[in-house]
Amino acid sequence: MKQELAIQARSISKTFHISEDSHNTVKHRLFNLFNPPRRKKVEALKQMDFDIYKGECIGLLGRNGCGKSTLVRLLAGVYPCDTGNINIYGSTLLMNLGVGMSHQLTARENIYVSASVLGMKIKDIDNIFDKIVEFAELQDFVDTKIKYFSSGMVARLGFSIAVNAGADIMFLDEIFAVGDMKFQEKAIRVFESSWIAGKTVILVSHTMETIQKYCNRAAFMKNGSLVYFGETQKAIELYVQDNA
Ligand SMILES: Nc1ncnc2c1ncn2[C@@H]1O[C@H](COP(=O)(O)OP(=O)(O)OP(=O)(O)O)[C@@H](O)[C@H]1O
């Protein structure tokens, strides 16, 4: 059977330039007039290529700071790539503690904006609106700006929008770790239902059981490089070795 592409990444990379000293205060600036803030280059993502196919659930493994979130953000279009290009075949939604949602908007407004981005018509969003709010258990916070939400509440809202609005490609960053126990159980039920069939999921998790259970392939990253992309078990072994 011919596999259909969902994501194609070619020679993508990302470097951040950060200033080490914060010359924010007047005192700081006066004392450092001839001493500009030092700039540091962080190669968050070194050039990499890969293909992800429709219906795959890909695990993304690596220690803190290895570049997982940067990669997910590039794929979701949050940051532009410095080099290379990414082709996405389908609608995407990033559910990473509210990245992709506007903190200045209410839950209601975010639902309409995110679902529209996924290609839904206003009338169709009206029909699933209550389901989204109910699933996220945010009935009492519909008209609250999400900047007042806890990170778990934002993650619940993002997950609920994706589940109910039906994104084709989803980036889930520690989705099983952010909600409370009840929500985690719900997220697991969704994962184990037929809903997941046909969807493409990129799952970032530090919990090996989760990766083992749901991912058909996995990637292991280290210091911004894609070290391995293939069998889930092998990627887990590399990650465990890297933590030893
Ligand atoms: N917006 C940014 N500006 C500057 N540096 C950044 C930015 N985002 C990430 N970085 C840097 O890029 C590197 C990779 O960070 P990233 O968040 O992608 O790692 P991660 O693997 O997702 O880590 P974690 O497991 O802690 O979530 C780090 O050194 C980080 O400091």
UniProtKB/TrEMBL annotation:
UniProt lineage: Bacteria, Pseudomonadati, Bacteroidota, Chitinophagia, Chitinophagales
Keyword check for Repeat: no
Protein name: ABC transporter ATP-binding protein
Listed SMART domains: AAA (SM00382)
Keywords from the named record: ATP-binding, Nucleotide-binding, Transport
Transmembrane segments: none
UniProt GO MF annotations: ATP binding
Signal peptide: none
SUPFAM superfamilies in the record: P-loop containing nucleoside triphosphate hydrolases (SSF52540)
Domain ABC transporter, chain residue ranges per copy: 28-244
Pfam family, one: ABC_tran
CDD domains: ABC_KpsT_Wzt
